[in-house]
Specification:
The chain is of the alpha/beta class. The chain has five helices and 13 strands. β6 and β7 form a beta hairpin.
Length: 257
């Protein structure tokens, strides 16, 4: 059976979100693990074609196995290039990615963030999009990534490894988007992960969690690693709508799928 991805629409409300950014839609993709073009990739491309995000972010593992980056790149570009996002298309690397894809994707209009921040502007307001370098865990440098970001700025942080959430929260991140875990990839029928890839509790392998004053969104991703199978853990992409308001998370019922 093919694991066709679903689109999960979420709303996260944040008190600190500037009013001008109310209703911004973020398409969050993670862990594609793409090599060859497959029916599952074609099905995902069809779904992404119907989404009109303001912002596209990818939290690592675009390809599968760094030494296959040339083969992966063609499929990655084929999948992602048609997505138009007026506020920009940004990505970070994961542990399966090769650094060689950085200049190739930059030439296609995608912006890498390697311990860097980019200001997103709407009207007279701006928020910081912060990307961590997490090709390797030891590359992570949160202070460097926040070097030009004042403490009171709203911070949307991209990271590959969810278990950096405590350091990110201590640094004042408002929303963190992560991947890496594949939601466990192999789960019990109730969705409880059998496998995990970091030190967070199993229940934090997927979903939205509140850690301190920070929202953590863990994407189950698209592809697979290790055992090339998913069980009771369907792949997905997330369409996240940011709202200004009392801290809460809910399904976005304004999207049809």
């Amino acid at each position: 059976m093919r694991n066709f991805a679903t689109v999960e629409p979420l709303v996260i409300s944040c008190r600190r979100l500037p009013t001008e950014f109310d209703d911004v839609r973020v398409l969050h993709i993670s862990d594609l693990h793409l090599t060859r073009w497959t029916p599952s990739a074609a099905n995902l491309a069809d779904k992404l074609r119907d989404i009109a995000p303001d912002l596209l972010v990818i939290t690592g593992d675009l390809g599968h196995r760094s030494w296959r980056w040339r083969m992966s790149l063609a499929s990655i570009e084929r999948l992602l290039e048609p997505i138009n996002a007026p506020m920009g298309r940004f990505f970070i690397l994961g542990n399966h990615d090769a650094r060689e894809i950085l200049p190739a994707l930059e030439r296609r209009g995608f912006t890498p963030l390697m311990n860097q921040s980019h200001w997103l502007t709407r009207g007279m307001s701006r928020i910081a999009l912060v990307g961590l370098a997490q090709h390797r865990r030891i590359d992570t440098d949160i202070p460097a990534a926040l070097g030009n970001v004042p403490p009171d700025a709203f911070k949307l942080m991209l990271m590959h490894y969810p278990d950096f959430i405590h350091a990110a929260s201590a640094a004042g991140a408002d929303v963190c988007l992560a991947g890496h875990t594949h939601g466990g990839q192999i789960c019990y029928p109730d969705g409880k992960p059998i496998i995990r890839h970091d030190v967070l509790p199993n229940y934090m392998c997927t979903g939205v969690h509140r850690v301190g004053n920070t929202w953590l969104v863990v994407n189950r991703g698209i592809g697979m690693a290790g055992l090339r199978v998913r069980m009771f853990c369907p792949p997905h992409v997330i369409v996240l709508r940011l709202k200004k308001g009392v801290e809460r998370v809910e399904l976005d019922r304004s999207l049809s799928k």
